[in-house]
Amino acid sequence: MQASSPASNLPLVRRLEAVGFRAWPAATVIYDGSWQLRLSGGHPSKRLNCVVPLDPSDVRDMDIRLEKARKRFQSYGRPLLLRQTPLSPPMLIERLPEAGWERFETVKVMTADLAQVTLPETIDHLPMHDIGRFVDANLSVNEEDAGLKPALAEVLSTIKPPTGLFVVEEPAHKPAAVALCVQDNDLAGIMEFAVATSHRREGLGSKILASALRWARISGARSAWLQVVDNNHPALALYRKFGFSEAYEYHYWREVQA
């Protein structure tokens, strides 16, 4: 499931975008034409709070629609963000700098053929089903505010495809690494993958990733996908070691504050 040229493989981009939406569902989804407005009042994740244009030809009334989106985001207490994928209209993206927007983050979407990935015959770490425990571990590993627990639990509870919640604990039962695997038919998405700062370079990332991918393959997934910020070089090296390669990139845009 590799894409040598995202521009020439828009069906793959559309499919990965669709499974990505289902794997990380926003509380509110509104369509303005083919523009998807994703909003989640409780969780600040950019993926849950952004405008995502999904048709390269949908450019009618761009400025008016951006203004409408801005007001809707303001009603949720969120800044207006736009996520640019290969499905975004080039005319809209060209317009953004002129309208006072800036691009501020690039994320790589990567895929791997699970039939070609060498994985252990057994799963070292079995998935759990306790969302509350996973959320606590996730917030601890990522050193995030415990106040996000209800919002993160709500996101995880609304994921409809089968999920595997993976946690690696140190001997004192403190979480050291986490990963979420969402299996959507023959595609498995790796989400919320993180290793605690104090446990990096110990091989825990490889262990938990191998467990998640092994579980996905046993469960019937044929390909895996994930998203990673383009400057996270240790994660990129790990993913490439497991056979992941880039399918396409997306970018976040925001309005420049005066």
Automatic annotation (TrEMBL):
<dbReference type="InterPro" id="IPR016181">
    <property type="entry name" value="Acyl_CoA_acyltransferase"/>
</dbReference>
<dbReference type="Pfam" id="PF24553">
    <property type="entry name" value="Rv0428c_C"/>
</dbReference>
<dbReference type="InterPro" id="IPR056935">
    <property type="entry name" value="Rv0428c-like_C"/>
</dbReference>
<feature type="domain" description="N-acetyltransferase">
    <location>
        <begin position="121"/>
        <end position="258"/>
    </location>
</feature>
<dbReference type="InterPro" id="IPR050680">
    <property type="entry name" value="YpeA/RimI_acetyltransf"/>
</dbReference>
<keyword id="KW-0012">Acyltransferase</keyword>
<protein>
    <submittedName>
        <fullName>Ribosomal protein S18 acetylase RimI-like enzyme</fullName>
    </submittedName>
</protein>
<dbReference type="InterPro" id="IPR000182">
    <property type="entry name" value="GNAT_dom"/>
</dbReference>
<keyword id="KW-0808">Transferase</keyword>
